[in-house]
Fold Bifunctional peptidase and (3S)-lysyl hydroxylase JMJD7 isoform X1.
Amino acid sequence: MAEAALEAVRRELQRFPAAARELGVPPTVPYLDEAPTPLHFYRDWVCPSRPCIVRNALRHWPALQKWSLPYLRATVGATEVSVAVTPDGYADAVREDRFVRPAERLLPLRDVLDVLEGRAWHPGVLYVQKQCSNLLTELPQLLPDLEPHVPWASEALGKMPDAVNFWLGEAAAVTSLHKDHYENLYCVLSGEKRFLLHPPSDRPFIPYELYTPATYRLTEAGTFEVVDEEAMEKVPWIPLDPLAPDLARYPQYRGAQALRCTVQAGEMLYLPALWFHHVQQSQGCIAVNFWYDMEYDIKYNYFQLLDTLTKASGLD
Ligand SMILES: O=C(O)CCC(=O)C(=O)O
């Protein structure tokens, strides 16, 4: 009897993503030709938790005309920045049955630019991606080139961003599938980013496992070691690579449907909180994003319930 009830819960959880998709998930990410008003942004995108790509919202940022690898070299080439270094381009990803964080190096930005422009070699794959408002803390000289927040989004959300992040990396640098509790306004200034997205409602099809946290260590010889962080709690992470899903191991992912979109220079992606995302980029892509903390409202509670039921029913 208990097993029959559990099976019924699993069946309903597996039906839920299609029902949610039918009501509210578009087949592709829609474009807006201009920045929405705060009311439209909130009503049409934030409230229903729908992503969109906004064109012409960055036209007035000097960064859109100015930012290039030579400009960064001239203005902030000597500035030291935190750089994530990994052997294969995957920072914060499951490797060797561990959740592995990147090695972190403090390098003058010009060293990263040398690698991006093919003038120098560095072991591993480099990605300037420290998500702690690194634009404000590490590269404040660039601030006059853009707005410190997105005014229509700040007004709609009733708050200022928690973080403004700067992203610059090699084409091999990939961000593994994950979700955040932020309303994300992701602006590409040069090059392009390719996003693979899943709505939060796909959670029953997306596997999570618990992993011992570890960090890459870059040795003097230029090789990588994986060093366990034994004292730390295990980290729940998604082991699946959506570009080459292991469907024998994670058959439930067959039911998920990814949305893919490419965000070009001058475009801004609105990525709603709790949407799963996997990100790739062109060589030397330059981007800035604004993270606004989500509202921990009833939508959050519903997602938590979906998450808990998925785990408790053994679908993970
Ligand atoms: O640009 C990337 O590589 C990742 C972006 C991301 O994960 C985020 O903004 O939450």
About this structure: The first helix runs from residue 2 to 24. The chain has a mean pLDDT of 97. The chain is about 25% helix and 30% strand.
